[in-house]
Design a protein that fits this description.
- The protein is built from five helices and five strands.
- It has about 120 residues and is an alpha/beta fold.
- The protein has a five-stranded parallel beta sheet with strand order 2-1-3-4-5, with helices on both faces.
Length: about 120
């Protein structure tokens, strides 16, 4: 079963994504902070991380950098309520697979995850 880590400081977002992705057949783990995310990546070795950019403490860009140091193969999809093309470009250059804005188009998110998982299996 493919594992997805959801990282967002909004509990409602974590719960909604966990419910949606669990119904799609994924094992979903969620955390509310960047610091917790790094620990979970080290412990759980997820296939995909859905990572909020703006969080108190350790933000998503710093977490992305740490994930890349731990395992470059993990697919990281950045999620945010703020559309900022410069931040999006920076994240992609740092190794994020995609950048999705809230509110989510769940069909688009599902497709991005499926494509990234196929890419993951090819590596």
């Amino acid at each position: 079963m493919k594992k997805i880590l959801v990282v967002d400081d909004e509990l409602a977002v974590c719960n909604m994504l966990k419910k949606f992705l669990t119904k799609k057949g994924y094992k979903v783990i969620s955390v509310l902070s960047g610091k917790e995310a790094v620990k979970k990546v080290e412990k759980e070795d997820p296939h995909i991380v859905l990572l909020d950019i703006i969080m108190p403490g350790m933000g998503g860009v710093e977490v992305l950098q740490r994930i890349r140091e731990i395992n470059k193969k993990i697919g990281v999809i950045m999620i945010t309520a703020v559309k900022d093309n410069e931040v999006a470009k920076k994240c992609i250059k740092m190794g994020a697979y995609d950048y999705v804005t809230k509110p989510f188009d769940l069909d688009y998110l599902k497709n991005v995850i499926m494509v990234k998982l196929l890419d993951y299996e090819d590596k």
